[in-house]
């Protein structure tokens, strides 16, 4: 089936076209530049940017693929999780298109789409058999808005959340710490670069939620051992920087960046591998903007390799938010005979992973 996918959950307006597991086009317009001076995504600005960008992005995608709206078999749109106002723009546009063309509409989960996009990557599709993702698949999603470990038994029917952050997302921690160090937004790439000149062992920053006494038990439910916490780490970096300043010493920014980055990535990769081992997961797919991080790729490769887990990293344009990932999941739903959504659905900013479509 030929699927049109629409993404607007954060600061990227994405329209993608996918036929089965074949990527036809992936057009993305980002409002990231407009958020730079605020040091983070401002929801109202993102919503307005989606409004401005949607029609040009749609037209460009159709033109690039040489496809007319009439040729499309179904439309898929991100219905959550994400920023409520931003989601509303994509969902309203998708509903309007579905109404005008009479095409079925699929209201789909953004996080699950980050996994489904793996099917579009040539190297991964080659490993996938008969257009299906590998069996016993896990996913580690790390971006400015999320930090999750998922178990995917069937991309169209059975996806389970194993662990998630209880406070800041990993990318958000990079952005906040970069700001503390006087680096520009988005902080991830800046810290990644600076960290290469620093000593990752210079400062021992806390590894959040790795000490058993802080975790829930059967009697007193609390964070699970696959959950993450990065707000304590961010505070520790702030205290560390203040310490140097109070002593009148220059802040060793490269060492702080490297040590902070190592603390985040050590926990993320260790927990992802632990979750894989304990849940018979043999293939781990990486997704989200933080997947661009060079140290994350290296550490994940090392640790997965040592544990006998195959690591799959889709190309970067498919890791960050885009419309093709939405179309890819839409195609899987169509091919698996999942019923389209009732047009009365509303976007759900906290749509749970277990709900693959509405
Ligand atoms: P969502 O969470 O909905 O996917 P988002 O816009 O917050 O949306 P992305 O666009 O996927 O997320 O990724 C942006 C995040 O990735 C930012 O927090 C940025 O700092 C981080 N990032 C980008 N490159 C790197 C890198 N090399 N190292 C670490 N973090 C990075
Ligand atoms: Mg983004
Ligand atoms: Fe995303």
From TrEMBL:
Sequence positions that bind Fe cation: 110, 114, 321
Superkingdom, taxonomy of origin: Bacteria
Any one GO molecular-function label of the UniProt entry: tRNA N(6)-L-threonylcarbamoyladenine synthase activity
Group of enzyme by EC: transferase
Classification via Pfam families: TsaD
Catalytic activity: L-threonylcarbamoyladenylate + adenosine(37) in tRNA = N(6)-L-threonylcarbamoyladenosine(37) in tRNA + AMP + H(+)
Location of the Gcp-like domain: 22-327
Cofactor binding notes: Binds 1 Fe(2+) ion per subunit.
Record-listed substrate binding positions: 141-145, 175, 188, 192, 293
CDD domains: ASKHA_NBD_TsaD_bac
GO biological-process terms attached to the record: tRNA threonylcarbamoyladenosine modification
EC number(s) stated in the UniProt entry for this protein: 2.3.1.234
Keywords (A to Z) from UniProt: Acyltransferase, Cytoplasm, Iron, Metal-binding, Transferase, tRNA processing
Free-text function comment from the UniProt entry: Required for the formation of a threonylcarbamoyl group on adenosine at position 37 (t(6)A37) in tRNAs that read codons beginning with adenine. Is involved in the transfer of the threonylcarbamoyl moiety of threonylcarbamoyl-AMP (TC-AMP) to the N6 group of A37, together with TsaE and TsaB. TsaD likely plays a direct catalytic role in this reaction.
HAMAP family assigned: TsaD
Family: Belongs to the KAE1 / TsaD family.
PANTHER family: TRNA N6-ADENOSINE THREONYLCARBAMOYLTRANSFERASE (PTHR11735), TRNA N6-ADENOSINE THREONYLCARBAMOYLTRANSFERASE, MITOCHONDRIAL (PTHR11735:SF6)
Official protein name in the record: tRNA N6-adenosine threonylcarbamoyltransferase
Native species: Arthrobacter wenxiniae
Gene expressing this chain: tsaD
């Amino acid at each position: 089936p030929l699927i049109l996918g629409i993404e607007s959950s954060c600061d990227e307006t994405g329209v993608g076209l996918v036929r089965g597991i074949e990527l036809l086009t992936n057009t993305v317009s980002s409002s990231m530049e407009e958020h730079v001076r605020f040091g983070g995504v401002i929801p109202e600005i993102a919503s307005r940017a989606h409004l401005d960008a949607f029609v040009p992005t749609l037209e460009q995608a159709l033109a690039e693929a040489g496809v007319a709206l009439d040729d499309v078999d179904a439309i898929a749109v991100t219905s959550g999780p994400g920023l409520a106002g931003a989601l509303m723009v994509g969902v309203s546009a998708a509903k309007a298109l579905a109404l005008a063309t009479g095409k079925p509409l699929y209201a789909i989960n953004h996080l699950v789409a980050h996994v489904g996009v793996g099917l579009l990557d040539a190297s991964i599709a080659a490993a996938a058999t008969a257009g299906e993702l590998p069996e016993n698949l896990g996913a580690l999603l790390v971006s400015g808005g999320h930090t999750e470990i998922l178990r995917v038994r069937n991309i169209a029917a059975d996806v389970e959340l194993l662990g998630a952050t209880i406070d800041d997302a990993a990318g958000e921690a990079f952005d906040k710490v970069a700001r503390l160090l006087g680096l520009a937004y988005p902080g991830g790439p800046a810290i990644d670069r600076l960290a290469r000149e620093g000593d990752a062992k210079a400062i021992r920053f806390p590894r959040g939620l790795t000490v058993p006494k802080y975790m829930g038990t059967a009697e007193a439910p609390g964070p699970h051992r696959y959950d993450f916490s990065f707000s304590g780490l961010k505070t520790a970096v702030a205290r560390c920087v203040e310490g140097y300043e109070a002593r009148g010493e220059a802040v060793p920014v490269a060492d702080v960046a490297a040590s902070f980055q190592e603390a985040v990535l050590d926990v993320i990769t260790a927990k992802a591998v632990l979750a894989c081992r304990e849940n018979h997961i043999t293939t781990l797919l990486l997704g989200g903007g933080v997947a661009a991080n060079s140290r994350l790729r290296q550490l994940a490769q090392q640790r997965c390799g040592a544990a006998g887990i195959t690591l799959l990293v889709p190309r970067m344009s498919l890791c960050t938010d885009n419309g093709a990932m939405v179309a890819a999941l839409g195609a899987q739903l169509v091919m698996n005979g999942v019923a389209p959504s009732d047009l009365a659905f509303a976007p759900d900013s906290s749509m749970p992973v277990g709900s693959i479509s509405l």
